[in-house]
Target: Molybdate transport system substrate-binding protein
Amino acid sequence: MLKKVFLVLLIILAAAGCAQKEQSSNMEEIKPAEKVELLISAAASLTDSLEEIQTAYEKEHNQIKLSFNFGASGTLQQQIEQGAPVDLFLSAGKKQMTALVEKQLIDNNQQMNLLTNELVAVVPADTNIAVSKIEDITKSEVKKIAVGQPETVPVGSYTKDSLTFYKLWDTIQTKTVFAKDVKQVLNYVETGNTEVGFVYKTDALTSQKVKVAFSPDSKSYKPIEYPVGIVKATKHVKEAEEFYKFLQSKAAQDIFIKYGFSLPDK
Model:
């Protein structure tokens, strides 16, 4: 009798063990997949538009987390050259993308010109100084002019080209305050630390503390192009390619246009 009871207990315990093992196995099967994090280095002038794109993209792709590193395109280029773990690069200048292609860090077939922009001069919204044309920046009332560092900040390079075209670059050197990126140029003007600053049209549109004083002739500087490319060293090729394609979609383009960017001529 005891043997039969013992045998029944063994059968019950074995069945319970199998059920628990099966339940554990099923739980492993339904365990959600870990999110893939895409690291994207992008020009500072893309901050607002890309943050809105991030919200839209992650809503439709809940297995993807987008992480952005915003800064001056030249600095971001150097970081990629030094081995920073970047999946995609969005530059505010063709020069930086070309350099990475030439160094075989980005495949030429996986990069393209995504957007265009314009150069404008901004002044504080409440300024009393009359600045309506480029020659006005030489006025004695204009004490300081904010300019992106030409060597590393594309907007600074475009500014230098434009002011050189107008033969004003050397003239304003004693007034020039160099900034690390376009957002810092904008901040200098917003806070009244400079009377004038040269930024992209898109940045001017984001601030109520500044107003556009004038727009230099587009012939005075190289076309402002925003190329995007997939970094060869990415460990998430499939996900990087999907986001690269999404940035070219109408959904993304509508957001870029909302923030003042233009699309390149096809």
Q: What stands out?
A: The first helix runs from residue 2 to 29. The radius of gyration is 27 Å. Confidence is low (pLDDT under 50) at residues 5-9.
